[in-house]
Structures are given as C-alpha cells and as structure tokens.
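Protein 1 of 2
SEQ + STRUCT:
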Amino acid sequence: MTRETTDLYNLYQSGIDYKSKIGYFVRSDLHWSFYNSDQWRGIKAENMPKITLNLVRQDINHKIASIMSQNIGINYVAEGVSDLAMDDDPIANAMNEEKKQYAEMLTSYIKVKWDTEKMNKKIRECLLNAAVTGDMALFTYWDYTKDTKQLEKGDFCTDVIDGANVIFGDA
C-alpha cells in the first residue's frame, strides 16, 4: 500500500533529512545534555566517580544575565526626519511631524505589546536556545480569536520556536 504525500510534506521531510544529514539533532541533544549536567552520558565507567562541574551552564547563564540586564525593546523612528533641520516648505514640515507622530504611536504600542507578550522572558528563552544549540527563532502571527475587549477580535502573538522545528524552504 502506498501513501500519498503532499508537496508541503515532501518539503518538510527534505528539511528533516537535511538536518539529520548534518547531524543537527544528535548535536543539539548532546549540547542540551551538557547544559543539563549529563556530561557522562554514553561513557562506560560504572566503577569510576563521575565528577561534574558544569561550567557550560554557569557560563551560558552568566552571558544571558549580562544581556538581559540591559533594557531591551523596540523604538520606531521616522527615517530621514531630523528634529533639528526644518524645511522652509510648510507641507514638508507637516508631513515630517506626521511621520514622527506615527513613529511615536508605534513605539508606544510596541511597549505595551512587549509587556503583554512577556517578550523579556521569550528573549531569555531564545538566548538560551541560541547558546546551547546555535539556533533561535521567534514566530509572530495574527491570532484572530484573541479577545482584546474591542469591537474587532484578534491581536499579534509571539511564540518561541525550537530551532529543530524551523525548516527553511530551500533545504
């Protein structure tokens, strides 16, 4: 009995095959083992003491803490619009002011979204993934079911995606 596959599944499978061929899954698993103090996995030395001083975890946690101690966020600016130089053209000045207002509104909105989406926690998780496996990914999408207490439903949501689950189309 043969099984039909879709083009999308075939792309997915080729991505899995590629990651397997380069040893991504085996290396990733090994790196997580080291981070989780399992450096002796697979070593046959039952009668020997297995000393573990997890410098890997300490180093990674220190680097993540150093990065996250800074204020992280997004600021929008009106590109090409200066606060100092004003044109003699009143229409150009009005357009520049409008661009600045849009940038300020976007910055205010993203600050609220940053807190509601708990982005600092997600960034910390991404940094850990990057330090251990070498990959990190965030996926932002529109969730049309999210109730925002407004007339229209839906809002942006962001999830942390494990690098093993990210397969680019040219695999």
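Protein 2 of 2
SEQ + STRUCT:
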Amino acid sequence: MRRAHSRTDLANDRQAGAGEAVSALVEQKWHVWHPLPALHCVPAIVLVLAAGLAAGQPGPALIGAGGAFSVGFGGFQKLSRWRLMPMLLAALNMAACTAIGTVASNSPLVDSLWVGASAMVLGLGTGLGTGAWWVMLQGSTFLVLAGSVPGDVREEVNCAFFMLVGGVVQC
C-alpha cells in the first residue's frame, strides 16, 4: 500500500476511494439476483388488497397490504431455524407499534418521546444481528407512519388488527 506524503496525495487517495465506492454501488451482481423468491411475497399482498376492496374497505385493505408487504421481506431474514420467526415477530411488532403510534400522535410530546425511544432501541439493536434489527426496524417505521394519522382507541385497534392480519396472511 502506498503511503501518502502530501495533501495532493491524500486528495487523490480520497477521490480514488470515492470512485471505487460508486462503482461498487452501481455494479450488477447477477449471480446474487434471484427474482422467484422475491415473487413469493406478491400473492398475499394481492389477496389482502382484493379481500378488502371486495368488502368495500379500501383503507383497511391498504393497511393490511402494507403489513403483508413489509412482513414478506422477513422471509429473507434469519433469527432461528424457523423461517417464519422473523415474519411473525415483525407482524406482531408492526401491529403493536401501529397501535401505539396511532394513539400517541394525539400529543406531539408523547409521540416524540415514543419515536425517540424507538430510535434509541433501534440504534442499540444493531448489536443483536441483522435479523433482529430488521424486526425492530419494521416496528419503528410503522410507529412513525401511524403517528401521521392521530386516532382514538377504536382506530388504534382497527389499524393494529388489519396490520396484523396482513402480516399473518403473508406468513
């Protein structure tokens, strides 16, 4: 490895490193591209959307489809020998965080405290491994999303229920 002796050498080394990073980002690695496993998530999303729309409930259909969509990626995570474990944990976490976010958003202070606590737990969770962190990330994301639509306890239960149904259908 070459040792930099001047500011010009340091600047050239930084530019070379940035170029290598960009090349790595845009490089196609076809040997790791597997489209069929990615398509396994689609039927549950379509089923949840179709059932909700057929029942005349587009809002709950979208909430459930969001749950199915996010939980579907859990099939690519690993927490234990059981492939469904990250998916089930994510569905439960997303439902709980959706419920909390819906009610907490009635007060900006309470919502901010919940989101801050969630961010702290998510940051600490990086040491637990990618699978566990992914499960926590799903909950944190839905906590923030649910906070955009304040609601009462009835709406909290409805949103959490449809989120859970969509996630379980995906499992």
